[in-house]
Structures are given as C-alpha cells and as structure tokens.
Design goal:
Strand order of the largest sheet: 5-8-7-6-9
Strand content: 15-25%
CATH topology: Rossmann fold
Bound molecules: hypoxanthine
Low-confidence stretches: none
Largest sheet: 5 strands, mixed, barrel
Oligomer: single chain
Number of helices: 8
Mean pLDDT: 95
CATH architecture: 3-Layer(aba) Sandwich
Structural class: alpha/beta
Shape: globular
Helix content: 25-40%
Order of helices and strands: HEEEEHHEEHEHEHEHH
C-alpha cells in the first residue's frame, strides 16, 4: 500500500524522466508481453531497449520467461512501448510495485494498454493453445491495487468498473481474429494470487461464478490503467485447462509449451489490432 503519496509520485516521475532520456520518442500504446508474445518485439522497427535494472525504482522481473526489458519501437506504423516482463503479486511484490509501471506509462503519455497473459481455461469447450478475449474480470476475492491513499492526479477514489475492457477494442480484436481465421473465445478472467495453481474445488467455484479463465496477472494492471483513464484491451492465451478439468496435473512447462504454440497467431493478432486502434 502507498504510505507516502508524494514520495511514490516522485518515484514514478523519476522513472518516467529516466525513460524519456533513453527512448527517441514517447508512445500512446503500451503492450504487455505475456507468455509467447516475446517475438512481437522482432517485428517492430526502430527498436530501443531499456533494461528494467537501469530504470530507477523499477522492480525486477523474476518470473520464468519474463525478460525484464522495456522496448520502444514502431509496430504497424504506430509508436509503442512493450513491456517484456511484468511483476506478479506471487513474486512477493506489493500491489503498488506490481502496478508501478502502469503509472509510469501514464506519465509518459500512454493512453491505451494491451495486456496479454497465459491462463487456465474454465469455460466449456475451451482448448489448450487457444486465445480468449477478456471481456470482464472478477477480482473481489483479493485486495485492490488502489487500496490506500488515492492518487487524485491519476484518478478518482471510487472508479467505475462497468467497462474496464474497452468495448470498441473488443470488437476490433474480434474483427482482426476473424480476418486472420483465428477462432477466439470470449470470457471473464479471474485473478488468483498464486503462485500455486488452483484446486479443482476452487475451479468449480469459479466456474459457478461465470469464469472463463483464471490466471495470476493482468487484473491489478487493468484496474490501475482504468483508474488512470487508459483504454484497456486484454487477451489470454489458454495455456492449459484449469485444475480438475485437465486429464493431468498442471505444470509451468505445459503453460510455456502451449503459449508457444499460439505465439505466431497472438503476435499477428496484436500486430493487426494495433494497426486499427
Ligand atoms: N491457473 C492460474 N494461472 C495460470 C494457469 C492456471 O491454470 N495457467 C496459466 N496461468
């Protein structure tokens, strides 16, 4: 939780000022590269990379497959920031650190956030190595990243959550998927803190609540971005069937292998979506 509001805002500004000295320009779009999305950076032009370790105040990314690099580049003719590596609550970070980079991006002028992740599929008919558009989320089971003193210059104390995920963006992602011949499901993403995967009983409970998929990221960032007034789009790679729905036990290897299988499709989808944002 934020203890000293002024000190936290100063820390955000110091990080943003540092990034400005290292990238040629600012960008209005930020893409968070979840599992399997790494190759998106390879189809960007004019790429400049900044290590998280160089950015003052930035946490370190410790999750497997998360590189810890901020990438600036041009994708589909648009200037973008890409986060190769994010921060998860399960790594031991407080929520203020998990979402720190979102506020830094807001200070840099980012208006649209594209979040991607790997998630366990819950909804009937879902297949591993497929994609889901996140239409909404459930996060009342956990603390809010906005708990504590409100940062009034970023957003209001009691932000509306009717449309965290921008409707127009959802339609545009669907349109791009249709054009590319990618079959996508749509659903509600439930944030669980991890790092342990869920139990079958937890998944049955989440399914009864209307969950489409479950994962350990994305929601704190989406809440914070919407608090800052950003438009948010989010896509899950269904890397496995959730616990109890899968014929076998869950492993992080399965998650990485299946995220890799849809890597090409996910990158093409985001490339085309950025073009029409
Ligand atoms: N549960 C939570 N997080 C995940 C899963 C899952 O089944 N798969 C990938 N991330």
């Amino acid at each position: 939780m934020i203890v000293d509001k002024e000190a936290y805002i100063r820390k955000i500004d110091i990080a943003a000022d540092f990034i400005r000295t290292r990238v040629p320009d600012t960008a209005e779009i930020c893409i968070v590269l979840g599992s399997g999305l790494g190759p998106l950076a390879d189809i960007c032009e004019d790429v400049v990379t900044v290590d998280y370790t160089d950015i003052p105040g930035f946490p370190l990314s410790t999750a497997p497959g998360h590189k810890g690099k901020l990438i600036y580049g041009v994708l589909s003719g648009k200037k973008v920031f890409m986060m190769s590596g994010r921060f998860h609550y399960y790594e031991g970070y407080e929520y203020v650190d998990v979402v720190f980079y979102i506020r830094v991006m807001a200070r840099l002028g980012v208006k649209s956030l594209i979040l991607t992740n790997a998630a366990g599929g819950i909804k009937e008919g879902m297949k591993p190595a497929s994609l889901m558009i996140i239409e909404d989320h459930i996060s009342f089971l956990v603390d809010s990243p906005l708990r504590g003193p409100n940062l009034d210059e970023f957003g209001v104390r009691f932000p509306d959550q009717t449309e965290v995920y921008d409707r127009e963006y959802i339609d545009k992602i669907q349109q791009c998927a249709d054009n590319l011949g990618i079959e996508m499901s749509r659903g509600t993403y439930v944030f669980c803190k991890g790092p342990q995967y869920e139990t079958p009983a937890e998944i049955r409970a989440l399914k009864a609540m209307g969950a489409g998929a479950v994962g350990m990221s994305t929601v704190p960032e989406a809440i914070t971005a919407s608090h800052c007034g950003m438009r948010v789009a989010a896509i899950s790679c269904i890397s496995n069937l959730a616990a109890g729905l899968s014929p076998h036990k869950l492993t992080s290897e399965e998650v990485i292998i299946n995220a890799g299988k849809v890597s090409e499709e996910s990158c093409a989808l985001i490339r085309d979506f950025v073009a029409i944002m």
